[in-house]
Amino acid sequence: KQINRDHTVMVVEHDMSFVRALGVKVTCLHEGSVLAEGTIDQVSSNERVIEVYLGR
Questions:
Q1: Tens digit of pLDDT per residue, the chain (56 long)?
Q2: Which among 26, 28, 36, 48 is least buried, having the fewest CB atoms inside 10 angstroms?
């Protein structure tokens, strides 16, 4: 967490437990464009994210 005071760090990760533990803003991409942005809870409950990634 100390590094984020002076630098921007981009993490590409599919392990949502790991992402949740970071406690940072999440940006979800689809085909190179931003699909959703916010907390992990906001993004994982986003209807468009669910539709695109889970096919519901």
A1: 566 677 788 889 989 899 999 888 999 999 999 999 999 999 999 999 999 988 87
A2: 48
What gap in Å lies between CA 38 and CA 26, rounded to an integer? 5
Enumerate the domain spans of the chain: 2-54
The pTM assigned to this predicted structure is 0.73
Backbone phi, psi, residue 5, to 5° = -75, -30
SS3 letters across the chain:
CHHHHCCCCCCCCCCHHHHHHHCCCEEEEECCEEEEEECHHHHHCCHHHHHHHHCC
